[in-house]
Specification:
The chain has 171 residues and is of the alpha+beta class. 33% of the residues lie in helices and 32% in strands.
Amino acid sequence: KNSFKNLADKGVVMFAIAGGFQLFCKYYQDINGNKYDGLGIFDAYTIENKKRYTGNVTVETNFLQDKILVGFESHTGLTYLENNTKPLGKVITGTGNNTEAAEDGAIYNNVIGTYLQSSILPNMKNDLKELYEAGADKVYNIIDEKFEEYNTKYYSNGIIKLIQEKQSKML
């Protein structure tokens, strides 16, 4: 838990979608009131709801080059941002984080969380490529061997490939 928060504090790029977004919050409370600790990267929490929110979502954002993000949501959790936590953007259509705030996701340093799924990645390809390339330099400089070994074993795509590309260019 602390390792991920430390990496987020140091500016490592992370992208969490749907359940991953909920995991990056302080806690998740299920329908029976049981609380499960999250990673605490976002100053936010999620409460499970009986209703499932599904459908297309559009979000206006000032964080990325793409001003309008389009995706699909399917979740029962209602996520509430606390204190000065910034959302990824303002919901134009759909539900997003919850039924009250008209916002989706959260941003902390180079960490982005969102309920947008499916077409969110192709729609953000230029922004994410730039963000991951910037973050790959930071990861290369601070990552420890155990974390790198874990990621290589379980997550052989994405950020690890960018790190390897950076390493080969440095040699």
